[in-house]
Amino acid sequence: MNSVSDTSGLPAPRSESELTKNRTALLRALPGLAVAVAVALAATLLGQTAPLIGGPVFGILLGLLAATLIRPLRGHMWRAGYRAAGTHVLQAAVVVLGTGLSLQQVAQVGGSSLPVMLGTLAVALGGAALLGRLLGLDPDTRTLIGVGTGICGASAIAATSAAIKPKESDVAYAIGTIFTFNIAAVLLFPPIGHLLGLSAHSFGLWSGTAVNDTSSVVAAAASYGGGAASYAIVVKLTRSLMIIPIVMVLAALRARRMRVDGHGLPARMPWRRMVPAFLIGFLIAAGLDTVGAIPPAWHPGLSAFGTFLITVALAGIGLSLRFAEMRKAGPRPLVLGGLLWVAVALASLGLQALTQTI
Predict the structure, then answer these.
(1) Is the pLDDT of residue 277 over 80?
(2) 185-217: per-residue pLDDT in tens?
(3) 19 vs 288, which has greater pLDDT?
(4) What angle, 0 to 180 degrees and rounded to 10, lies between the N-to-C axes of helices 168-196 and 299-320?
(5) Torsional class of 5: left (φ above 0), alpha (ψ -120 to 50), beta (otherwise)
(6) Which phi and psi angles does 242 have, rounded to 5°?
């Protein structure tokens, strides 16, 4: 008798086969996941001593160094776990991040700031597409740098990576580029703001729309003083909500490119393929926070957990990387990131002047 049939001759339920397959995949992934978690723990400790850099950036750096210096960590037995960290853990991180984004925050910042946020986002995404093509960068690299600059740094790169499935090296280029200009912004924005005579409200809007990661926005605005930090944080969190429509569009475009019929026309795609499950989870999490189902006291713990999951994911990506792969791109990703950073910073100030919010 065929081993996949029962006594009635009918095939075994598909769910049993899927469960067995998932169990096997989990067991294969555990060793590499354990390594990624260990690297992430070390990166988190380093991030606490140097919060301007943060655990996620240390995660990808330590992962890359560990794989480079410890030859056994490059072995085949670890790869499934590294891959799981860079995909499934990354998707889980995006869902957890949604618990800290209330839709009510959009209303709190007021309509006067929305033109600046949307305008800087358009400059970042449009500039990434145009300048990235001129620099000869591949589509995934310029997309990741564009969303990282225009939305919210590493979190946006994480969400976009989970949707478009780029190469690990593309994620590394984007993370490194965003990190470089986060540091520059923290150091340069406060003195430039004082030189321009910006009010605390204007500087909060400027840093909230032109600085990438939340930690860097807080650092720059707190250094400026005068209450700029509180407004900058609200602007930054509202800007982070742009992840939702951007990732939905990118996921739909990727799904259509992967399914093309014989006439070169996009095949009809089920909505489940066009809207990834993790993004639905993100929306549900944000909705729960909006209606108050997530107690405010849980926010710090959930935020720390989400950041740790991103650190695990980036550690897995770092462990999968090789210096030889990264050298191939040369300085072009950094050039693109620098051009976009300057363009977004100038666009934010220009739009504030146009809307008379400066």
Answers:
(1) no
(2) 888 899 999 899 999 889 999 998 998 877 678
(3) 288
(4) 130
(5) beta
(6) -65, -15
Q: Which of helix, strand or coil describes residue 11?
A: strand
C-alpha–C-alpha distance, residues 26 and 18, integer Å: 12
Of 146, 147, 137, nearest in space to 169 by CA: 137
Nearest Cα neighbor of 103 from 283, 277, 233 is 283
| DSSP class per residue in 22-50 | HHHHHHHHHHHHHHHHHHHHHHHHHHHHS
Q: How many CB atoms lie within 10 A of CB 192?
A: 14
Dist CA 53 CA 185 (whole Å): 13
Record the tokens describing residue 283, joined without a space. Answer: 């929306």
Q: Which helix (H) or strand (E) holds 219?
A: helix 214-224
Nearest to 153 by CA among 190, 125, 179, 120: 179
Q: Which residue has the tokens 């869902």?
A: 95
Q: pLDDT for 46-90, tens place per residue? A: 988 887 677 887 888 899 899 888 888 888 889 899 988 888 887
Alpha-carbon distance values, 242 to 120, 151, 285, 294, 343 (Å): 12, 7, 15, 21, 19
Decide if 137 contacts 333 (C-beta within 8 A).
yes
* DSSP secondary structure letter of residue 270: -
**Stated pTM of the model:** 0.68
Whole-number pLDDT of residue 3: 40
Residue 188 three-state SS: helix
Task: Spell out the residues 6+ positions from residue 100 whose beta carbon is closer than 8 angstroms to its own.
Answer: 237, 289, 299, 302, 303, 306
Q: How far apart are CA 80 and CA 24, in angstroms?
A: 11
Cα 7 versus chain centre, distance: 51
Task: Match 């899927």 to its residue by tokens.
Answer: 18
**What is the distance, to the nearest Å, from the Cα of residue 330 to the centroid of all Cα atoms in its chain?**
22
Residue 85 and residue 248 in contact, taking contact as beta carbons nearer than 8 Å: no
Over residues 251-260, the pLDDT tens digits come to: 777 777 665 5
Q: State the DSSP string of 144-183.
A: HHHHIIIIIHHHHHHHHHHHH---HHHHHHHHHHHHHHHH
